[in-house]
Design goal:
Shape: elongated
Bound molecules: adenosine-5'-diphosphate, magnesium ion
Helix content: 25-40%
Length: about 475
């Protein structure tokens, strides 16, 4: 599926590469023992190392290293047994050391890949260039006081993974799909919570445009985009801006820009800095990071089942479509919920219920799986009542709605409301005769050859029984009666 921007002088292809900053799930920061959790009182989670007091020494937190390695393994990437930390020098008020400890020439993780799926069902592989570990900076607060700025160092020193993609994406949709898939993988691994509103996952979006078949042209980088929707909008807006520059006879300058969601535009922040501007050099306070192969292997053996593998398993184990499996595995809680409903039952029916009525009920009530009024066990119980013939499929919908409203189990709802399926053929026959008497005209039409009225009669009989008639028995009885 090719995506192009139609300009005045022809069409343009998009080239997109993402640099994603993912905050590592860890109790403590990358080089200090201070807490790394979100939302504490300003400056309540700051050690002397984070505040860059003279003479303090960073000590690597191996928990963060393990998380980075696990992420690399989850991206099927090369794990480098020897990597190194560098100082990236720059001045900023929320960076008290005057440098950020990062990895430049020797990252902990090398090339990997992520498979994305697009709306038309097609799949593409996007290359991951590298993943490295670095510290986050503090936060400047400009909105607390009219004349002063404040600095909160809680975030200073928190471990980030920077995950850099190859310039492999060609449309806003691909960029969105990449980020969504990456977030899913990180959440499965438990290495980043993926919470974009809190800033634990943010993307720098690199965009350029070119004529089909051409070499890459100059790119611009849009900094710190904090939602998937904004990433897609920013790509589109920036690509259009560049197209109009090229078509107007100008040249695109490499620069760093910001996306303004209100205006739907990007605007310049600064001209692009190069690596030499940062004067990177190996941090003399830290030894090279050397990993044991056995340790990496142990982490690998311990990885959870990841979404791609789970999807393949769902298709073969439960007989559901690739598409449905993809929706179910996109979120771990949904996948777990589905497996609890489907286990030992009809997998397709379970998928229909989870993706249909169940999701609709969550949307309507504003709940999530975690606080859903209907548990997986309760939904499974409802399916069991359909399977053993206690209720029919139509009544099951009503029972489910009652379960959502009351939080009661399926059996309790069925008993309390007398919704058991009617299998008494005497009652079915009586309802049937009543329907044929009321619709004598239709009966004549049916006898005259309008056979599709059969379904209408079935529906009327079941309706006449308050929806509780057993559809198979009603069908049998009608067939026998109409054959007379
Ligand atoms: P830097 O380290 O200066 O930011 P990199 O070469 O590491 O530059 O690339 C950063 C990001 O920009 C990567 O995600 C890469 O895929 C992307 N990128 C590189 N060249 C282009 C281009 N011409 N158009 C779009 N994205 C690009
Ligand atoms: Mg960069």
């Amino acid at each position: 599926m090719s995506y192009e921007i139609a300009g005045e002088t022809g069409t343009w292809e998009l080239v997109i590469g993402l640099e994603v900053h993912a905050q590592v799930v860890s109790e403590a920061k990358l080089f200090s023992g201070a807490r790394a959790t979100y939302g504490g009182e300003p400056n309540s989670q700051v050690s002397l190392v984070d505040a860059a007091f003279p003479g303090m020494l960073p000590v690597i937190n191996m928990r963060c290293v393990a998380q980075a390695v696990r992420t690399g393994l989850g991206l099927e990437a090369q794990v480098n047994l020897v990597s190194r930390f560098d100082r990236k020098n720059y001045f900023y008020a929320d960076l008290p050391a005057g440098y950020q400890i990062s990895q430049f020439a020797h990252p902990i993780v090398g090339a990997g890949k992520i498979e994305i799926e697009l709306g038309d069902g097609s799949r593409r592989e996007i290359g991951v260039t590298r993943l490295h570990l670095e510290q986050d900076a503090g936060k400047s607060l400009h909105d607390q006081n009219p004349t002063r700025s404040y600095i909160d160092l809680n975030r200073a020193g928190v471990a980030l993974m920077e995950i850099v993609s190859e310039p492999d994406m060609r449309s806003p949709e691909e960029a969105g799909a990449y980020l969504r898939k990456l977030r899913t993988i990180l959440r499965y691994l438990g290495t980043c919570d993926g919470n974009m509103e809190e800033g634990s996952l943010r993307a720098d979006v690199n965009v350029s445009v070119r004529r089909a078949g051409e070499a890459f042209r100059t790119r611009c980088e849009i900094k710190n985009v904090n939602s998937i929707r904004y990433v897609m909008q920013a790509v589109e807006a920036e690509a259009r801006r560049q197209v109009s520059i090229w078509e107007g006879g100008g040249t695109v300058d490499q620069e760093t820009r910001l996306f303004d969601p209100q205006r739907g535009q990007t605007r310049p922040l600064r001209t692009k800095e190069d690596a030499h501007d940062y004067r990177y050099f190996p941090d003399p306070d830290l030894l090279p990071l050397v990993l044991e192969e056995d340790w990496v292997e142990a982490l690998k053996a311990d990885l959870p089942e990841l979404p791609d593998a789970k999807r393949v398993r769902f298709v073969s184990e439960y007989g559901i479509s690739h598409y449905d499996a993809g929706v179910l595995v996109a979120d771990q809680a949904t996948a777990d919920f589905y497996e609890m409903v489907a286990g030992g039952r009809d997998g397709r029916l379970a998928a229909n219920w989870v993706l249909g009525d169940f999701f609709a009920a969550l949307n309507r009530t504003g709940r999530t799986i975690a606080d859903s009024p209907v548990t997986a066990a309760a939904l499974g119980g409802l399916l069991d009542l359909v399977a053993d013939g206690t209720i029919n499929g139509r009544i099951a919908k009503d029972v489910f709605e009652a379960m959502v409203d009351t939080g009661e189990g399926a059996a309790a709802v069925v008993e309390a409301r007398g919704l058991r399926q009617v299998v008494d053929t005497g009652l079915i026959d009586a309802a049937l005769e009543a329907v044929l008497a009321t619709h004598a005209d239709k009966l004549t039409e049916y006898r005259g050859g309008k056979e599709k009225l059969f379904g209408f009669f079935v529906g009327q009989v079941i309706k006449g029984m308050g929806g509780k008639g057993n559809p198979a028995l009603v069908n049998d009885a009608l067939r026998r009666r109409l054959a007379q």
